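Handout for the seminar on molecular recognition.
Each group receives one record of this type.
Step one: identify the two inputs.
Step two: read the structure output and locate the region that could contact FE2/S2 (inorganic) cluster.
Step three: write two sentences on what you found, then compare them with the reference statements printed after the record.
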Amino acid sequence: MATVRETDMVRVCTLAELQREPMRVTTAAGRAILLVLHEGRVSALDNRCPHMGFPLHRGSVKDGILTCHWHHAKFDLASGCTFDLFADDAPTYGVEVRDGEVWLDSRPVAGDRLAHWLDRVEVGLEQDIPLVLAKSAIALDELDATSEAVARAALFGLRNRRSGWSQGMTILTSLVSVMPVLAPGDRPLALFHGLRHVAASTRAQPPEFDLEPLRTSETRPERFQEWFRYFVEVREADAAERTLVTAISVLPPAAVADLVMAACTDHLYLDSGHTLDFANKAFELLDRIGWDHARDVLPSLVPALVRSQRMEETSSWRHPVDVAALVHDAAAELMLMRRDGGPAMGWSGHAELASMILDGEPTDVLTELLRLVHSGVPLTELSAAVVYAAMLRAVHFPTSNEFTDWETVLHVFTYANAVDQALRRAPSGLLARGILDGAMAVYLERFLNVPKRAIPTPSGARAGAAAILSAFDTQGGVDDAAQAAIDSLATGDDEAVVRALGRALLREDGAFHHYQMFEAGIRQWSRFRGTSVGDQVLLGTARYLAAHYPTVRATGQTYDIAARLHRGESLHEDPPG
Ligand code: FES
């Protein structure tokens, strides 16, 4: 508890006045404070209900409990602590009666704010209460404790979901990674979106119970990889998980990453790319919260890995061209080549290769990829070219396609991006097979660019963030958003375009794919920044997001209420008496 400083003490009324009016509002340090005389004791609390700001002096007191009359949250009058988890604890103030006069400490009683708000994150996640999560995100951002909040939420999301890694976990991890490019004021909002989706992903889910590592003397990476890939192949989840937790306990991180990524690419384009994308995100999360948490994080990948649909079992990968067989042959050849993802050699053929991937025949594309590997082009340059080709599908996507076809484009782009990011983290020949099936996934969606929508040219209008955002206000504003983005990019301020797209994302009720598209777009924009490729990545991102907006925007409304409460604004007109 803070020490009372005499200089902070202000005389607010007499005890006699309080006896005549036992619930009386005063003002100190710009805040409305409720004084309550109850059972012979004077208490002081912030007059705004911590739930949604209703004036507490319109509530009632009975048996030491203050009840807010709006949503009936109840508070212990003496401490301000709430009995109802959807509300928060009400800030209290020190108060003393001296010679019949009531003196108030104008500073709220301070506890450990960091511990308090991290606990509130946990409550918000457990009870799935968006307003609590919004307030926590704002407070923790102010305390510069976003990392602690992310770690707390991530571990909660992993512990409380037996079915494994969730969309909420991907959203949280994605948003944290793009925070640096967002406008500073949008960063706590991004954290709120992440927390909200972790809560939604764990709702009504059974908890996860850990498996123990094998008590084995085995330490060879190749043996663990062999076991893990076999158990995934035959869809034995427990055996695969026990192998993985054992590997985590004896192998270095790079060997564990190799093992997981090998299993993710043993079959083609697993689950429309989600399986590898989730795995990549899990490793990104570990980069952020530390390898010590590998046993909490990585086993969550196993359920999806053993369940995933294998695309070679689908007709589109077999007929009329047996693309699956072509990829398998090319992958076998790739395994025989030097493939160290070695030093960049100034290769800049991304646009040319992407054009071939978009419009070429499968055998020609695979042959060219192998030729480039053989000639020493780093794998990460080839993976980047595949991502660019995948993004060009969104750039050229005509709105005459069915709306749901946007998701086909999204899946290929985010898969190719995941392969690219994972290769940058831990280059591996087995993982490089993802370059091949990624390129073929782009080939298989070629009908979505018939006819190709042309890339707009700058109109000369001095567009900016406002023009971009206004294009997202109307359904079907895909081409308007693209034009506004191109006009803004022509001014040379691509960071402003990125911030505007971030704002567009965060003011909506985002769905899983929207976050995926934005994050992957930002990754590739960063990779190709300052080139026409980088600009086109932003253009494709803008077109995809514009196709899905506007939504109801209820998330933003909840956040605004939390932000106004945090700033101490009055949400309800109620002047002090
Ligand atoms: S309970 Fe007080 S504002 Fe909702």
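Reference statements: The mean pLDDT is 94. Residues 49, 51-52, 54, 68, 70-71, 73, 87 surround FE2/S2 (inorganic) cluster (CB under 6 Å).
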